[in-house]
UniProtKB/TrEMBL annotation:
Signal peptide from the UniProt entry: none
Every RCK N-terminal domain range: 2-121
Keyword terms of this UniProt record: Ion channel, Ion transport, Transport
InterPro entries in alphabetical order: NAD(P)-bd_dom_sf (IPR036291), RCK_N (IPR003148), Trk_Ktr_HKT_K-transport (IPR050721)
Gene3D superfamilies with a match to the protein in the record: NAD(P)-binding Rossmann-like Domain
Native source organism of the sequence: Lentzea jiangxiensis
GO biological process: monoatomic ion transmembrane transport; potassium ion transport
Pfam families with a match to the protein in the record: TrkA_N
Protein name: Voltage-gated potassium channel
Length: 126
């Protein structure tokens, strides 16, 4: 495991989560995984490495370095997709801290049961 953070989905929710990480846990490197070229361009401009692809795909998560990441941030636009990403990320990395931004408060417990360590309701969607 290294100090790398893999961010699945790069929008407002991901930026909020990254801003709220404690200073002592700031990642040494950030890899952003998204299907949206505009989001990836923004991530590159902010100094992140990028991988284009679907975070629900185990192969794409592996390519982004999920098995060796210290932290995985799941901030996709749909909670159902987020559940799949969370379960897939946990299956690839049992020790990473998985932080999830959810859209529906009622889904917090389900995300925790699937392996998320920290679950936040994204303020703009609450």
């Amino acid at each position: 495991m290294n100090g790398r953070t893999v961010v699945v989905g790069y929008g407002d929710a991901a930026l909020d989560v990254l801003r709220h990480l404690p200073l002592n846990s700031r990642p040494s490197a950030v890899v952003v995984l998204d299907v949206d070229e505009v989001a990836l361009t923004g991530a590159l401009a902010n100094g992140a490495e990028v991988v284009r692809g679907d975070g629900r795909d185990l192969c794409v998560l592996q390519r982004a370095g999920t098995p060796f990441a210290a932290r995985v941030v799941v901030a996709v636009g749909d909670d159902r997709d987020g559940l799949l990403v969370t379960a897939a990320a946990r299956s690839l990395n049992r020790t990473a801290i998985i932080t999830v931004a959810v859209r529906e408060p009622a889904n917090q417990e389900l995300f925790s049961r699937l392996g998320a360590d920290d679950v936040f309701v994204h303020a703009r969607s609450a």
